[in-house]
Write a structure and sequence with these properties.
Blueprint (H helix, E strand, L loop, with lengths): L6 E5 L4 H12 L3 E6 L2 H12 L5 E5 L5 H15 L4 E4 L15 H29 L2 E6 L12 H21 L4 E8 L5 H10 L4 H10 L9 H12 L10 E4 L17
Parallel strand pairs: 1-2, 1-4, 2-3, 4-5, 5-6, 6-7
């Protein structure tokens, strides 16, 4: 998986899976554009990328705003002239609580970032790739895009939607040299997992995390780097016949009946 002379655009690149992917691409020769709403985190990732000996650009954007998405795409083209790979990754978890009591503003915010943000990324990047006649997109869904996670209605709805957008986009552009796939991480050792655990049980988040991990057949949470490795594969020529697919990176969680578990109540 070599990405020399490739330009890779990553949203949500300031931390977690996005940062791991940025470094993975950089280590394989790619020029990396890092987009995040956190300016400090975005700059830090870009500096890490440059230490790998490749070019990097960091941009601040709210992915739910069309003008800002258009701006990060245009800035990438102004700087490097093309977009070969797009990791459409930015996402938030929202709050944990019963659907019947879920805060409407939080619901709207989660869908704005996780669903509208993915749509807008596709909306503005796909024309670039279609003009080039080549490109690979990976959207970040979740195992929550395949099964329910009680207490997380907004997150689950948004991640199901990401899979739908992935399939539609793949069907529309695959005859033009552009591929669109998705990754579905399970419990991954990132800030998001820790935040969810803390929301479920502020007094004992470690017990909640243990509950998450106990649902994983391999016996541990995944790492951001393990998800990034699948993203790199899907963006590489090794996956040249793969489009419209979703790849679970969940340690076998959904392959086993014990993998479909409820979020513990507060």
């Amino acid at each position: 998986m070599k990405f020399s002379n490739k330009v890779v655009l990553i949203t949500g690149g300031g931390s977690g899976i996005g940062r791991a992917a940025a470094l993975g691409f950089a280590q394989r020769g790619a020029t990396v554009v890092v987009v995040d709403r956190d300016e400090t985190a975005t700059r830090d990732t870009a500096e890490m990328v440059r230490k790998e000996g490749v070019q990097a650009l960091h941009l601040v954007a709210d992915v739910s705003q069309s003008a800002q998405v258009r701006a990060y795409v245009e800035a990438t083209l102004d700087a490097f002239g093309r977009i070969d790979c797009f990791f459409n990754n930015a996402g938030i978890e929202g709050t944990v609580g019963p659907l019947a009591e879920y805060d409407e503003d939080v619901f709207d915010q989660v869908l704005a970032v996780n669903m509208r943000g993915v749509f807008l990324g596709l909306r503005h990047v796909l024309p670039v790739m279609l003009k080039q006649g080549a490109g690979a997109v990976v959207n970040t869904s979740s195992t929550a895009g395949l099964v329910a996670s009680p207490g997380m209605c907004a997150y689950v709805a948004s991640k199901h939607a990401v899979l739908g957008l992935t399939k539609v986009a793949a069907g529309e552009v695959s005859g033009n040299g552009v591929r669109v796939n998705a990754v579905c991480p399970g419990p991954i050792d990132t800030r998001m997992l820790r935040d969810i655990a803390a929301q479920v049980s502020p007094d004992d988040p470690e017990a909640v995390q243990h509950g998450f991990v106990s649902s994983v057949p391999i016996g541990r949470a995944g790492t951001a780097e393990e998800v990034a490795n699948v993203v790199l594969f899907l963006c590489s020529d090794l996956a040249s016949n793969v489009t419209g697919a979703h790849y679970m990176v969940d340690g076998g969680r959904l392959a086993s009946p014990k993998g479909v578990t409820s979020v513990p109540e507060k």
